[in-house]
Design a protein that fits this description.
With 252 residues, the chain is of the alpha/beta class. The protein has one domain: 2-enoyl-CoA Hydratase, Chain A, domain 1. The protein is 50% helix and 15% strand.
Length: 252
Amino acid sequence: MSNGYITSHFDNHITTIEFFHPAQNSLPGHLLAELVSHINQAGADENTILIILKSEGDRSFCAGASFNELSSIQDFETGKKFFMGFAGVINAIRKCPKIVIGRVHGKAVGGGVGLAAACDYSMATKYASIRLSELAVGIGPFVIGPAVERKIGLSAFSQMAINATEWQTAEWGKQKGLFTEVFDTVEQLDAYIDHFTSDLVKKNPSALMQLKQIFWEGTDHWDLHLEQRAEMSGRLILSDFAKDAIAAFLQA
């Protein structure tokens, strides 16, 4: 439990993948790799028509990458591997033949915003404030940038990337296209997701799969693209600026 977990639950042609980590659902490397495995398995399951991605708890949806792991990086290869974690999940969702529904019940930071953006259809509560905090610790939202920009556009992505310390509201996220719906409570969010998916799962699975392909047209180069972005962050994280900023964050 202290290391977090990933679980999958199948019911009525829907696989629900849930992640948890006690540090505000931040995701260390081993959980990111496990998440990729669960997405791949659900995508390959002939009985699964839809996938729901959610997290446990009642506060944060996902606080991004693990700062404890981030602070321990001492060389480029380790840094690149670290930042490839979220790249792997984004690419797994991109390549997954099934529609992925995001349930964002609370705050999303950095990689958490990337997860919400990578989902094909994300819904949230009004508590799902969002922030790209990478610049504040000496790097930038390079790996998740393509997924976020694809969903909300360059202007809104630029605003979030540069204004790394200010939260944007869930309603702002809806206006920019990150979220399709924003609800007042988690109960309302879950009730609507149940309603929405129970109807969607009745649609032609082949049509849904072909829609998924259309949604992601023009991203075939992302395996290399996100790897190159991970290399950018892997170099920057070794700078004195980044090391000092992360140390200050951990001491706060």
